[in-house]
Amino acid sequence: MVTLRNAALRKRGTTLTGTATATAADLRSALGGAIQGLQPIASGGGQLTLQGTVLGVTADATLRAQNGALVVQPDVPILNFITLTVFNDPHVEVQGVAAADAPGGFALSANASLK
């Protein structure tokens, strides 16, 4: 579980917008130390590209909405068949995520709608 700071959730009609900040240490802790140096490196089009190092190999992965769920998929040709669902709720349809640098970490945001 990732520790989120200054988290806020806003609802307008059926539209949900969530914002929070997380530190690099928060992200590392959530993964149990398996991935080193995990950090967002690009954001756009409703998805977020993360980069980290596992067993000495640095690779990217994309966090994105898929069929209303939030999934992460390695951007490595030999592993791109792997898709890990990190959030799925039958009442919430995730539409996109984003991140930007913020003091001490990263500013994260997500938009969704109620089903």
Q: Order of strands side by side in the largest beta sheet?
A: 3-4-5-6-7
Which structural class do the helices and strands define? mainly beta
Which regions are unreliable across 5 or more consecutive residues at pLDDT < 50?
Answer: none
- Average per-residue pLDDT, rounded, comes to 87
Number of strands: 9
Largest sheet: 5 strands, antiparallel
Number of helices: 1
Strand content: over 45%
| C-alpha-based Rg, rounded | 14 Å
Q: Kindly report how far apart the N and C termini lie.
A: 25 Å
Listing every helix as H and every strand as E from the N terminus to the C terminus, the arrangement reads EEHEEEEEEE
The tally of structural domains comes to 1
Report helical residue fraction. Answer: under 10%
Overall form? globular
SSE layout:
Layout: E1 5-12, E2 15-22, H1 24-30, E3 36-44, E4 47-54, E5 57-66, E6 69-74, E7 84-87, E8 92-102, E9 105-114
Antiparallel strand pairs: 1-2, 2-9, 3-4, 4-5, 5-6, 6-7, 8-9
What report would you give on this structure?
This protein has one domain (23-114). The model has no long low-confidence stretch (mean pLDDT 87). It contains 1 helix and 9 strands. It is mainly beta and 115 residues long. The protein has a 5-stranded antiparallel beta sheet, covered by helices on one side. It has a 4-stranded antiparallel beta sheet with strand order 1-2-9-8. It has one helix at 24-30, and strands at 5-12, 15-22, 36-44, 47-54, 57-66, 69-74, 84-87, 92-102, 105-114.
